[in-house]
Design goal:
Belongs to the adrenodoxin/putidaredoxin family. Helix content is about 40%, strand content about 15%. It is α+β, with helices and mostly antiparallel strands. The longest helix is centred in the first third of the chain and has 45 residues, at about 1-45. The radius of gyration is 28 Å and the shape is globular. Bound molecules: FE2/S2 (inorganic) cluster (FES). FE2/S2 (inorganic) cluster (FES) binds near residues 95, 96, 98 and 123.
């Protein structure tokens, strides 16, 4: 009887050792899988060289990172990244609301490719917290030169259609 119990215990220990060995093998394989996933993500980013990063800074200082493609407007960036800016872009870029009002740093404002047209200036006049470097986000088109752009979101918005 003692011999039979010894053989049973030995078999259990062997099974446990095999389970432990397999578990360790799986554990050791995990970082390899992670590295592959990370590399794939990096490769996808490298295949999208036209992505332009934009940072939206709320009035309370919160920074929201987003990105868009060359040719997108800043309104597109907000919509496509689900940036939570209450009421932003209410007229969907038809230049009738001024809710997409954004404030640029002076250097960024001066390097924007286009100056505001009369329609945009008229709509900006209705925006709250207007500054010398204010623009309407729906009128700003992303170019690669604007990568890393930082724009400030005013504390309050005015939907000119409600007036
Ligand atoms: S989205 Fe309405 S003016 Fe820009």
């Amino acid at each position: 009887m003692l011999v039979i119990n010894t053989i049973k215990n030995s078999a259990r220990i062997t099974l446990r050792n095999n389970w432990l060995r397999n578990s360790l093998a799986n554990f050791n394989a995990a970082p390899t899988n992670f590295t592959r996933t990370f590399s794939l993500g990096l490769a996808l980013r490298q295949q999208q060289p036209d992505l332009v990063s934009v940072i939206f800074v709320r009035a309370n200082g919160e920074r929201i990172k987003a990105s868009g493609k060359v040719g997108d407007s800043l309104l597109d960036v907000v919509v496509n990244n689900n940036v939570d800016l209450d009421g932003f872009g209410a007229c969907e870029g038809t230049l009738t609301c001024s809710t997409c009002h954004l404030i640029f740093k002076t250097a960024d404002y001066e390097r924007l490719p286009d100056k505001p047209g009369d329609e945009e200036l008229d709509m900006l006049d209705l925006a709250y917290d207007l500054t010398d470097t204010s623009r309407l986000g729906c009128q700003i088109t992303l170019s690669k030169d604007l990568d890393g752009l930082e724009v400030h979101v005013p504390a309050s918005i005015n939907d000119a259609r409600a007036a």
